[in-house]
Input
Amino acid sequence: YYTFAANDLVKKALGEYANGISDEGWIPCVYPSQLKTRGNLPTWGMRYPVIVYEYYLHTGDKETVKAVVPAIIKQMEFLSKSEDSEYFLRNLSGWAFIDWTKMQSGLCSTQGALNGWYLDALNATANIFRELGDKEQEKKYRHKATQLRRNLAKLWSAKLKAFLPWRLDDKDRPRIIPPDLITQHDNFMLALMDVGTPVQRKQALRAAAGITNDYLPHIGSYQNQFMPIGQWGNIKSEYLIRLGSPFYSYYALLALIKNAQIQDAVDYIRHGWGMMLENGATTCWEMWDRHTS
Output
């Protein structure tokens, strides 16, 4: 939008993703692909309503939004089948990928990061129906978003002054995860999505900086999914899981800027993307540990 004003390219992508929706209701992570059998990353698919709403904010193009609304409804209904009584998503079909870390890509998807994305999708869907004048549908998704935001606040730990990956009494919490472990993913995402109180969100961002008081992602450690065999280490020794990829750092930057930590955001960009330039990168790395392009 800002660099190239390529609105037509976004419009084309929105239509293609809508046309590629599966019979079950999930939107594929790439298009075109073997749409009916592969490509189900529900976490990426739930970004679709957010992308549609952002497109509308930049263009005011209601006709395109109206054209893809059936796909949004079908996908949101698909996701709703995995809601529990608190509107948390559980046991999603497909690969609930969050980020390239051992936890968020292989072991599990934490409740804060996963459902923070879902909260964003619910908000965007409600906003779309508000702009289209469909009050009934807007009310439906706004109610879900309000309840989910309230329930996500239960992840707060007064002891750690941070949001936990799971409530300690959560039956689905992997027992390998120590009770004092936190992740940057959950705390950046929930601070961004206005979960908890303003004071809690400030404390969550402070916790995400770790004992070094630095928001750097991890740049090569066994936290990362992409490591040589035998180098994964023991997650029980960790206290903070840092971001594994530049793409998820987008949400870190949004959270920092939203909470008026502008210098921290600028430093993050200089350290992270500046490291790519210093290493002679000609494309953005997929992971911060320099193993990918």
About this structure: The two ends are 24 Å apart (CA to CA). Residues 111-132 form the longest helix (22 residues). Residues 38 and 237 are 35 Å apart (CA to CA). The longest strand covers residues 156-157.
